[in-house]
Amino acid sequence: MALSFHSEAIRFDLKQKVKHKNWIRSWIFLHKKVPGDLSFVFTSNEQLKLINQEYLNHNYFTDVITFDYTSENVVSGDIFISIDQVKLNAEMFEVSFQEELRRVLIHGVLHLMGYNDASVEVKDLMREKENDALHLWLKEG
């Protein structure tokens, strides 16, 4: 059960790594699942667009792409996050960079837990779960 943070094609160092790991693990356990191997890779818009093109045949920028290796109740996968896009999102939604980064982190985890955002209805549920996770972050002080 390894949870790790890396950067690729950019220089980025996540603040409060231990708190983030504990928060993500707590969120997964709260949903009666077990954290497996989770790797978060912070990268640039350009790099994430290349991944999007190569693996998903999508030719656009995005904030997060997940590769799901979850098996039964063990949540595992690689989560690629564009730091550039997180910054743009934070400005657009008028929230702090750190809050938007946590939202995108947990959004990737939610995908690994079986949630998707393919329609308006499930998108709303996902947003609700993201908000619940952000409240958990605040409770963990």
Rg on CA atoms, Å: 14 Å
Number of DSSP helical runs: 5
CATH superfamily: Metalloproteases ("zincins"), catalytic domain
Tell me the name of the CATH class. Alpha Beta
**Relative strand content:** 15-25%
Q: Runs with pLDDT <50, length 5+?
A: none
Question: Biggest β-sheet: count, sense, barrel?
Answer: 4 strands, mixed
Short overview:
With 141 residues, this protein is α/β, with parallel strands linked by helices. 52% of the residues lie in helices and 21% in strands. The model has no long low-confidence stretch (mean pLDDT 94).
List the helices and strands and how they pair.
Layout: E1 3-7, H1 17-30, E2 34-43, H2 45-56, E3 64-68, E4 74-82, H3 83-93, H4 97-112, H5 120-139
Parallel strand pairs: 1-2, 2-4
Antiparallel strand pairs: 3-4
Please, could you describe this protein's structure?
It is built from five helices and four strands, in the order E-H-E-H-E-E-H-H-H. It has a single domain, classed as Metalloproteases ("zincins"), catalytic domain (Collagenase (Catalytic Domain), 3-Layer(aba) Sandwich), CATH 3.40.390.30. Helix 3 crosses helix 4 and helix 4 (97-112) packs across helix 5 (120-139). It is globular, with a radius of gyration of 14 Å. Helices cover 52% and strands 21% of the residues. The longest helix has 20 residues, at 120-139. Strands 1-2-4-3 form a four-stranded mixed beta sheet, sandwiched between helices. The chain has 141 residues and is an alpha/beta fold.
